[in-house]
Amino acid sequence: MTVFELALRSMRQNVKHYYLYFFALIFSMSLFFVFSSLQHDQQVQSMLESSDKFLTAFQSAAILLIVIIVIFTISSNQIFLRRRSREIGLYQLIGLSKGRVARYLIIENVLLGFGALISGIICGALVSRLFVLILMKLLSLDGLPAIDFSLPAAFDTAIVFVLVVVITSVQMIFMIYRSTLLNLFQADQQPDLSSQPPSVLASILTAIYAVLGIVLLGYGYELSGRMVDEQLVVNALMVILSTIAGTYILFRVTIKWCFSWIRRRKQGHLGLYNSLSLAPLMHRMKGSANSLTLITVLSALTITLVTMAYSFYYSAEHDTRLAMPDDFAFENRLQDTQAFTSELESKGIHFNHHTIQAIRTTGVILNRLDESSRIEERLIWLPAEQLHKAGRNVSVPSKGDAVQYNAGGLNAFDDIDLSKRYPTGIELQADGQNVSYTLNELVLENMLNSNIFGSQMVVSEATLKDIEDKMFKTLDFEKVQFDAYRISDKAELALASSLYEKYKLDDHFSYDFYSQYRSALELSGLLIFIAAFLGLAFLASTGSILYFKQMTEAEQEKQSFKTLRQLGFDEKMIMKGIVRKQMVVFLLPLFIGILHSFFAVKAASFMIISDITIPAVTSIVAYTAIYFLFAIFTLGYYRKVVKHAML
Amino acid sequence: MNVLNEQETVLHARNVQKSYGSKGGAQQVLRGIDLRILRKEFVGIMGPSGSGKTTLLNVLATIDRTTDGTILIEDEDISTMNNTALSAFRRNKLGFLFQDYNLLDSLTVKENILLPLSLSKISKQQADNEFTAIADVLGIQELSHKYPFEISGGQKQRTAAGRALIHQPSIIFADEPTGALDSKSASSLLSVMEEVNRKRKVTIIMVTHDPVASSYCNRVVFLKDGKIYSELYRGEKSRQLFFKEIIDVQAVLGGDHIDSV
């Protein structure tokens, strides 16, 4: 019998052992195919071309997806190989050389992979249409997507397939050449336990490690709160590294240490429930630490990603509105204003129009925290009385005082206490002499749309007059008239936005609220789609890895269940202990992952002005819900094993 | 015989039948077994392969169900109990010894032995006392913090014996307990079982194919084709003499090979 025949025959007879690995491969392939199809889709492509941000988002998502596929297949291949280690040992025992066994496994792997590739592409082709529909819906684009089977996507998927097959084959070769016959036969019974009490040195080391894990996590968390400065990249890297290392040590040492402590206190009176949870968990802590760390980190990543994307989507309108209080604004364009007004009237659109006379100068806002820094900037001086008449919620500052309005102000200074910066002074240069005013406070709101150039300073009419008198001769002095429009009806606003189109200048700064809001919505829609897609991929992989691992453990513990049932513990009692174990296996990484993501989201929240509690809670709840499905599947599998253990 | 009759019956099986498979092609393994076991007896069940000795043990030990017949243990009819009640019954009244020890790998010797006491209302102090007493008899005191993979087969089976004894069951069922042991560990385990039977007054029912093992019993029941073929009582005989008698019956029965002393 040739090696090829052996491979084929063994595959036919072992389908039930392979299905797990096979499923993992199919899943990865179809996921990538769907994503790649989207990337190659005409409609999506034309959108990608329109914006660099879209393109970058898609490309980074593709790379992340490949990374997760590789991690996922390596993990499941490892579990799969461990399940088959006895079989691999047996081939060598009957005299097959390591080279032949390796060749046999690789043939098998290629055949399996090829099957998975074909099935993955078929599955992917079936569901990709659905995904495009969801994407179009999220972006509120009209027109039915006409997605056909995408050849380039199939080609890309095939390349990823080759990558995966090469990596898993190398993994198999390593496993065959590096393990001895003895550990092949004992692969599932190498306990991570010792009855020897640890030496003093060892226990001190353990204690140091246990503390180190928590210190690393604490450091990562702490640094994440203040990482937005010039060294953002270095800081972010430090945060990620210390958090991952801390998580690993937490699982590898700290938690094991806690478990040992609890166990020692029991003095042998472990009881049934701990015998089914604490003991097997400690038994396999070494092997579990890797996968628990992986799952924690991926969970954190997924929740952060989805939360951020959903926050962008969720806050698209709110954030745009904060930046642009007026729907349309004209600066010194009296004719256009008149034309626009009459056009709105002729279409029967209800609107609110007001005019503000202001001035623009150059000046320096003094930095109280750094006296030496003097940055000249453009300042728009707005009369509070006029703003008040236009319906703005402003109070009139006393003479010589000013109030700055900036909706994005908090982002600029992050967590620095505003009370340390204000009140401060503003210095203007007029005819070689300095004129200064007091800047009382910063209000986190805009009085004018953010696309109007200059920092917004609100003063009284009298102060305005004073500034004008002193500054009108300077080179940079400008008198400006702002014409702002507000339209409350959404449909009328959309119509008005299309009317406004022809008034747009070529300077990229004369956009209106509605079109800005639309493009924010589109970008965040794409982001949320990519995040949800990746999140689903991550979740499915982490869930599957946990499920596969627990499945293997359930089978290894089958004899224990049988013994316990013979000793007179019934199914319900045994399941209680198992539920306790699964609580630890599933909840521990979930909780730590959520904690990680809490700090990650907090650190990244400077990108969003609006409150992100609702998006964060929504994504955590959604993630947890799907994650629990895997826990339920796992418990179902255990129940089956326990039920049939007696037979 | 008179002495035995005066004693209390702990297990009474009447017309026990067991068949496997569907009704049409059912294979009858036990064909009506009547067996009465008295308190403090140490009974061996022997017979050639396929005679139904393990099936009988499983049925008596409530691990498997009968097709027909009744089994009373301490006057409770186990053939009519539901699964939950059977589990509770096993937990409280029975102890087990298996050929493969069936210890939980992730538990230490002490944790394994104390396992049957979990869910019971015995205090920790009481359990500790009981453990110390049993571990002394079995000679496994020093091993109590070791894991199963760190001890020998004989020590594992002693641990299993400890687990079978800890909750003071009415009957201990042993399925080829010496099957995986070398002859020295086997005879030392059997001596311990004999001692436990005498001193702690525990009833033991043991399935074995080894005449040496069964020579430690008070009584040996021989099965053939799912029926009781004959019985031997040891009485006041020496173990060597009893062993010879067992060999003789086995020779007539045929089937299994005969082990040397």
TrEMBL record, chain A:
GO annotation terms (biological process): transmembrane transport
Spans through the membrane: 18-38, 58-80, 101-134, 154-177, 198-221, 233-255, 292-313, 526-548, 583-608, 620-638
Entry membrane topology: Multi-pass membrane protein
Domain of life: Bacteria
GO cellular component: plasma membrane
Main location: membrane
One Pfam assignment: FtsX
Alphabetical keyword list: Cell membrane, Membrane, Transmembrane, Transmembrane helix, Transport
Residue ranges of domain ABC3 transporter permease C-terminal in the record: 61-179, 533-641
InterPro entries xrefs: ABC-4_Integral_Memb_Prot, ABC3_permease_C, ABC_permease_BceB-typ
Location of the protein in the cell: Cell membrane
Similarity remark: Belongs to the ABC-4 integral membrane protein family.
PANTHER family, A to Z: ABC TRANSPORTER PERMEASE, ABC TRANSPORTER PERMEASE-RELATED-RELATED
Protein name: FtsX-like permease family protein
Taxonomy of the source species: Bacteria, Bacillati, Bacillota, Bacilli, Bacillales
From TrEMBL, chain B:
Signal sequence range: none
PANTHER family, sorted: ALPHA-D-RIBOSE 1-METHYLPHOSPHONATE 5-TRIPHOSPHATE SYNTHASE SUBUNIT PHNL, LIPOPROTEIN-RELEASING SYSTEM ATP-BINDING PROTEIN LOLD
GO CC term, one of those recorded: membrane protein complex
Family: Belongs to the ABC transporter superfamily.
Protein name: ATP-binding cassette domain-containing protein
Domain ABC transporter: 11-250
GO molecular function: ATP binding; ATP hydrolysis activity; transmembrane transporter activity
Source organism superkingdom: Bacteria
InterPro entries: AAA+_ATPase (IPR003593), ABC_transporter-like_ATP-bd (IPR003439), MacB-like_ATP-bd (IPR017911), P-loop_NTPase (IPR027417)
Entry keywords, A to Z: ATP-binding, Nucleotide-binding, Transport
